[in-house]
Every structure is written in structure tokens, then in C-alpha cells.
Design goal:
This protein is α+β, with helices and mostly antiparallel strands. The chain has helices at about 1-20, 115-130, and strands at about 25-35, 35-50, 55-60, 65-70, 70-80, 85-90, 90-95, 100-105, 110. Strands 1, 2, 3, 4, 5, 6, 7, 8 and 9 form a nine-stranded mixed sheet that branches. The protein is elongated and about 75 Å long.
Length: about 140
């Protein structure tokens, strides 16, 4: 009997807590890096981020969270359903109880703007320099 009373009490308190929080039905994203501001309090549908504790998706009413970004791709689903991908080198993501999200990256670029052939050439060049023991690279 006491288990049932405790369960009801916890459910009632949890419902009151959820009502008191200022969760919003829309999610506002601010996404910036040193080189550019991509979104400034823009309403979006979903954000997927790579973090050192694992990749995760963020929707409106997400539990407040703070995470460190790892190098990878941040995906933003805009309200019209358009998917935009960004490469980030590192940074942080914070999700607030008002459904606002801040993604602050050390460096970020739209994936569409990255020239894959140039990136491969630069990778080969620097790998060769590292293999040769060139002190300028280290």
C-alpha cells in the first residue's frame, strides 16, 4: 500500500514540476563559430550533434543538457524539413529549459562548401611531411 502512495506522490510532484518549467513547443538555435554565425535564435525542428559522451538528437522540450562537441557533423533540420550539415572541429552544446540551444564551435563549415579533392590533397601532403620527419609540421 505504501508503494502505491509513494508512486502517486512522485507522479503528482513530477507533473507539477513539468508544469512549472518553461518548456517551449519551438526550439531556437544559436549556432556560431569564430568564422561565422550560422543561426541566431532561429526556430528549427531538430539538431543532431556529435559529443564525447555519444551523438544525440535534440528536439523541443529536450531535457537541459551541456556537452562537449567532438569533431564530426552537426545536422540541423529546419522547420521546412530541409537538412543542413556542418562539420565542427570541437566546441560545446547547451540545451536550456526554455528549449533554446546554443552550439558554439571552435571551427565550423557547411559540408557543401568543403572541397573533398582539395581536402584529400592536403591530407596526403601533410601525411607525407609527417612521415618524412619534417620538423616544420610538428
Amino acid at each position: 500500500m505504501s508503494f502505491v502512495k509513494n508512486a502517486r506522490l512522485l507522479a503528482t510532484r513530477g507533473a507539477r514540476l513539468a508544469q512549472n518549467r518553461s518548456y517551449s513547443d519551438e526550439m531556437k538555435l544559436t549556432f556560431a563559430a569564430a568564422n561565422k554565425t550560422f543561426y541566431d535564435a532561429a526556430v528549427v525542428r531538430q539538431i543532431d550533434v556529435p559529443s564525447f559522451s555519444g551523438s544525440f538528437g535534440i528536439l523541443a522540450k529536450h531535457v537541459p543538457t551541456l556537452a562537449v562537441l567532438k569533431p564530426g557533423v552537426v545536422q540541423v533540420v529546419e522547420n521546412d524539413g530541409k537538412l543542413i550539415k556542418f562539420f565542427v572541429s570541437s566546441g560545446s552544446v547547451s540545451v536550456n529549459d526554455d528549449s533554446s540551444v546554443q552550439v558554439l564551435a571552435e571551427e565550423a563549415h557547411n559540408v557543401e562548401d568543403i572541397d573533398i579533392n582539395e581536402a584529400r590533397q592536403l591530407l596526403s601532403k601533410y601525411q607525407a611531411q609527417l612521415g618524412a620527419g619534417d620538423e616544420k609540421v610538428r
